[in-house]
Amino acid sequence: MLNFDFHNPTRIAFGKGRIADLAKLVPAAAKVLILVGGASAEKTGTLAEVRAALGERQHATFSGIEPNPSYETSMKAVAQIRESGFDFLLAVGGGSVIDATKFIAAAVRFEGADPWAILEKHGRNIQGAMPFGSVLTLPATGSEMNNGGVITHRAKGAKLSFGSVHTYPVFSVLDPTKTYTLPPQQLANGVVDAFVHTVEQYLTYPVNAPVQDRFAEGILQTLIEVGPRLLTAQEPVYDDRANLMWAATMALNGLIGAGVPQDWATHMIGHELTALHGIDHARTLAIVLPALLNERRVAKRAKLLQYGERVWGITTGTDDERITAAIERTRDFFESMGIATRLSGYGLGGDTVTAVVAQLEAHGMVTLGEQREITPAVSRRILEAAL
Ligand code: NZQ
Ligand code: ZN
């Protein structure tokens, strides 16, 4: 096992009816800015519930944070906070709203000329951030219990990630009933995003870390079990929603990634696809991952065999046949969730390959993967195999 530090300060309030706990979780004297996305938080009644739980506290609402949140919109919130003197932020939404809130919390305290520099340095220059909590409405990203965020600069056409010890939520409320209003494609996105987060920390090379491996395999098996049921159920099933929610949180809160090598090439290539074509985050991962696993089948050989056997029950055939079967089962799983796994499924062709590789180079993403071996030429082969 590799050396590691593990410290996750985010308090989780999990279960039905827990939004009422905001009354205790948010400091009593706080002046609160609630941040939401489009119309969903209002329409579903979650925003009204949040406001009621805040009681007598002074509060206002900033709305309009887009999916794949933008720097431009985030900076409007920064101006409002500076003008009106809020001292606590409360994100109500999915990964996009929580990520934007993290960036806003850091940008308000940022002393440089332009907070975009936070993204250019991937958060290494964050000196502090406002305190913030979240109410999660879409299980997928793990943003509710990690310190990372991804922000898009629309004018520059760049989608970059950041992270800092200062950008963990103080608390997150996870009420599985809040997922009941999600459309099927967002549920599918959540399953696939959490699945790929787990794979990016598990499917690398062995370092004799059986606790992390078996946690990861447990998350993958849970997603495989629950995922299809989420799409076919006539009515939402509380336990399935709860298990999806906790699986997605556990997939990216630092636990399974502690002490093991990590990949993240699928995410970095996927972010460029979203920046260029606006494809949902999880869908970009479903396009890249099967092709990447095949391209890296030698470097990832031992873990691919372990994955095939323990997650998919593949125990017969030569090593190569077993690896091929494991990759195919992964692709079939994404497809069974209604998510296309090839660029052609999104109307994209060879031009996109060239454009994505150019963007990876422009953003310094030239030695990706756990072995730092995914150069632009390798990324090109992966994307060509995903056509
Ligand atoms: O904008 P509103 O109206 O709220 O609608 C949203 C949005 O259109 C809707 N929605 C959310 N909760 C709902 C709901 N609709 C009905 N009922 C509810 N309960 O869902 C749509 C998508 O929301 P979004 O927040 O964009 O989705 P997601 O949670 O998948 O977040 C994606 C973003 O997170 C980043 C991605 O790159 C992307 O920008 N990621 C963040 C990570 C992190 N912080 O650790 C890691 C991930 O790998 C990922 O990169
Ligand atoms: Zn992701």
Mind explaining what this structure looks like?
This protein has 2 domains: 11-178, Rossmann fold (3-Layer(aba) Sandwich); 182-385, Dehydroquinate synthase-like, alpha domain (Up-down Bundle). The protein is 49% helix and 10% strand. It contains 15 helices and 8 strands. The chain has helices at residues 22-25, 40-43, 46-54, 71-84, 95-109, 116-120, 184-202, 210-232, 238-251, 265-277, 281-295, 301-312, 319-336, 350-362, 376-385; strands at residues 11-14, 32-36, 59-62, 88-93, 132-136, 148-153, 158-163, 171-174. The strands form 2 sheets. Strands 1-8-5-4-2-3 form a 6-stranded parallel beta sheet, with helices on both faces. A two-stranded antiparallel ribbon has the order 6-7. α8 (210-232) packs antiparallel against α9 (238-251). The protein starts with 10 loop residues before the first strand and ends with a helix. 49% of the residues are buried. Zinc ion (ZN) is lined by residues 141, 193, 197, 267, 281. It is an enzyme of class 1 (oxidoreductase). One of its GO terms (molecular function) is methylglyoxal reductase (NADPH) (acetol producing) activity. Its EC number is 1.1.-.-. Residues 188-375 form the Fe-containing alcohol dehydrogenase-like C-terminal domain.
The side-by-side strand order for the widest beta sheet comes to 1-8-5-4-2-3
Overall body shape: globular
How many helices does DSSP assign? 15
Beta-strand residue percentage: 5-15%
Number of domains: 2
Span between termini: 37 Å
CATH architecture of the largest domain: Up-down Bundle
Determine the fraction of residues in helical runs and give it as a percent range.
40-55%
Count of individual beta strands: 8
* Largest sheet, strands/sense/barrel: 6 strands, parallel
Q: Which cofactors or ions or other ligands sit in this model?
A: 5,6-dihydroxy-NADP, zinc ion
One letter per element, helices H and strands E, the order comes to EHEHHEHEHHEEEEHHHHHHHHH
Radius of gyration: 20 Å
Assign the CATH class of the largest domain. Answer: Mainly Alpha
Cofactor: Fe cation
Domain Alcohol dehydrogenase iron-type/glycerol dehydrogenase GldA: 9-176
Protein name: NADP-dependent alcohol dehydrogenase
EC number: 1.1.-.-
